[in-house]
């Protein structure tokens, strides 16, 4: 996958995992100390998150880091 495709796939994965919890973007943002716009950019594939950001997201969503980035 190329970089943009990976970012889009990750965004879709975050949306799916967030949806499983019944959370809004604001809910996820609060859970990982981000602002809603940061979550929106992640979900839309506009940013390339750091490893630390991915770990914060995984912890907030109560999934492992490998589960978060499983883009198959």
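Sequence proposed for the structure above (72 residues):
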């Amino acid at each position: 996958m190329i970089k943009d495709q990976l970012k889009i796939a990750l965004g879709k994965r975050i949306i799916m995992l967030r949806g499983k919890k019944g959370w809004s973007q604001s809910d996820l943002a609060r859970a990982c100390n981000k602002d809603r716009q940061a979550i929106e950019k992640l979900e839309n594939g506009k940013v390339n998150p750091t490893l630390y950001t991915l770990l914060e997201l995984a912890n907030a969503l109560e999934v492992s880091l490998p589960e978060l980035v499983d883009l198959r």
